[in-house]
Specification:
With 123 residues, this protein is mostly helical. The chain is 64% helix and 11% strand.
């Protein structure tokens, strides 16, 4: 299941804080802050989708992530590769490196990461 852009923004805050109350989430937004009811509605949708859970403390709910950030974005990227690059990681990597304005230094860093991964997989 996928999150909307606004839900992703909210989820980023929850991942960052790990456990957070509604008031703290509202306070985390820049001005103009969304209404508390708007955030509560988004949290309810995210809960229904299985992304967040909560613990009750009196009348307050402390929200926490049920989905790991890396797992969510990995699944998202795999969907992009499948839908836009014919399920070819090589085509995705080629597109990414030629169309992303990476500096020579960043490409060298990427090359090191790839070389390390090759060595790891050859073992």
């Amino acid at each position: 299941m996928k999150l909307s852009k606004t839900e992703e923004q909210l989820m980023e805050m929850i991942w960052k804080q790990e456990k957070v109350f509604l008031k703290d989430l509202v306070d985390s937004f820049p001005h103009p802050k969304p209404a508390t009811t708007t955030i509560a509605t988004l949290l309810k949708r995210m809960q229904d989708k299985g992304f967040v859970g909560y613990t009750l403390f009196g009348n307050s709910r402390e929200y926490y992530p049920l989905v790991n950030k890396d797992d969510y974005f990995s699944k998202h990227v795999k969907g992009i590769i499948k839908n836009y690059f014919g399920n070819s990681t090589l085509q995705f990597a080629s597109f990414f490196t030629t169309n992303s304005n990476m500096t020579a230094s960043e490409l060298e860093d990427l090359k090191k990461i790839i070389d390390q991964e090759i060595k790891r997989k050859e073992k």
